[in-house]
Write a structure and sequence with these properties.
The protein is built from 15 helices and 11 strands. By secondary structure, the protein is α+β, with helices and mostly antiparallel strands. The protein folds into 2 domains: 204 residues, Metalloenzyme, LuxS/M16 peptidase-like (Cytochrome Bc1 Complex, Chain A, domain 1, 2-Layer Sandwich); 194 residues, Metalloenzyme, LuxS/M16 peptidase-like (Cytochrome Bc1 Complex, Chain A, domain 1, 2-Layer Sandwich).
């Protein structure tokens, strides 16, 4: 599969990444580097509310229905999303109609109406979205983790805001937000898929986005972590969800890519061993995998699973014993490495064949490092890793302060003490 993305800059500084692929559709993402982590507590939910209103009507398309009709006529679909650090408009369309999607996104971003009556209607919609999210066990756990481990300094799970905030936002406040957060300087447009004429496409983007104002947008990447053992009581839940975290050994920097890849392979090896032990040898869990939290500066990784409250103590004891055993005597063989490489090849093939995954990676990599993601260079680095490299570079994995977060019914066990007792 072809992979030759090219970086361009518009006259006003907007970044454009064109990533041609031999497929039959074109995926477009217009991303702004701003999100919920840039909000003050009384603003939690403001970015998300503005995202909704940026999709609710423009001068040319005064209603969502007219937008949807326009997209259907051109063979396209579109949506938008808000995260902790990004606001993104995304869509997929027939390649001969790519101009239509570029024009629509540019108009939504620069000429949305923010009609008062639609703002009032959307308040109820967003509050309902918030209620549904807080009824979801994974959202509940994420919100608890964010508050417990980060004390609100990384409000990834406050994207939807609070009912009080949602009810308080005014039209002027939203327009001020748009005027202060959507800049050519923090805008990245990623297009992956069939590109019929790159020069024509760039000219279209320039025409529609050159009027986007250029100014600096402050970012909040502060992150304060407090290692904790904590339980989020949910007595109506049948299972207890379990998350165990350790600080990442290496910073998220390009000069540590080799070390990061070695640790990732160690985690893959360890998780497979623990999964087999917990599920097939002891029948305690249905699934077991990895988990990570943090931001582009710092991260924490570990394990995620769930089991009954009667089995939670035994599960943690077995995880601790397994971690100690496979860490201190990994017995990582060349055959293990060959299997990991085969799995990675399959993952890379899936990634190369997905316009959505490629555009997402290209944008996030540019946001983090200011350059194009060199997929084949990273593949080459991965292929040089030996079993001994994995063992050497993962030393210290369990040395940092751990956190254990659980959610579900109450249980009678001190899980930190269980870990200490069995990690030996």
């Amino acid at each position: 599969m072809q992979y030759s993305p090219v970086l361009h800059k518009l006259s006003n500084g907007v970044t454009v990444i064109l990533d041609p692929m031999d497929i039959e559709t074109t995926t477009v993402k217009v991303c702004f580097k701003t999100g919920s982590r840039d909000e003050a507590p009384n603003e939690y939910g403001l970015t998300h509310f503005c995202e909704h209103m940026l999709c609710k009507g423009t001068r040319r398309f005064p209603s969502k229905i007219s937008i949807d009709d326009f997209m259907e006529k051109n063979g396209g679909i579109r949506n938008a999303g808000t995260g902790s650090s990004v606001l993104v408009f995304r869509g997929k369309i027939l390649p001969e109609n790519i101009h239509a999607m570029i024009e629509l996104f540019a108009e939504q971003i620069q000429a949305s109406l923010f009609l008062p009556q639609k703002i009032e209607t959307e308040r109820s919609v967003i509050i309902d979205e918030l209620r549904r999210a807080m009824d979801d066990p994974e959202e509940q756990l994420g919100y608890f983790i964010s508050n417990t481990l980060f004390g609100g300094t990384t409000p990834s799970y406050k994207t939807l805001g609070t009912v009080e905030n949602i009810m308080s936002f005014t039209r002027d406040q939203m327009l001020d937000w748009v005027g202060s957060r959507l800049s050519a300087k923090n805008c990245i447009i990623g297009i992956s898929g069939k590109i019929l004429d790159s020069d024509d496409l760039l000219a279209c983007i320039e025409k529609n986005f050159s009027s986007l104002p250029t100014f600096d947008v402050p970012e909040n990447s502060k992150i304060v972590y407090t290692p904790t053992v904590a339980h989020n009581l949910r007595s109506y839940k049948e299972n207890v969800k379990l998350r165990i975290y350790f600080p990442d050994l290496y910073d998220q920097s390009l000069d540590k890519v080799f070390e990061q890849k070695c640790v990732n392979k160690f985690e893959t090896f360890l998780i497979k061993k623990l999964f087999r032990m917990l599920r097939y040898e002891n029948g305690l869990v249905y699934d077991f995998g990895g988990t990570n939290i943090g931001n582009e500066k710092k991260g924490w990784s570990g394990f995620a699973t769930e089991t009954s409250k009667e089995h939670i103590k035994r599960a943690v004891s077995l995880i601790a014993k397994g971690c100690y055993k496979f860490y201190n005597n990994p017995r990582l063989t060349d055959n293990d490495l060959l299997r990991m490489r085969a799995e990675k090849r399959l993952f890379n093939a899936d990634w190369l064949e997905s316009a959505n995954a490629r555009s997402r990676t290209l944008i996030s990599f540019y946001i983090d490092f200011g350059k194009i993601y060199d997929h084949y260079e990273f593949v080459k680095i991965g292929r040089t890793i030996t079993a001994q490299d994995i063992i050497d570079k993962s030393r210290g994995y369990f040395d940092g302060p751990m956190s254990i977060i659980t959610q579900g019914d109450s249980f009678d066990a001190d899980l930190k003490a269980v870990w200490v007792e069995n990690f030996k």
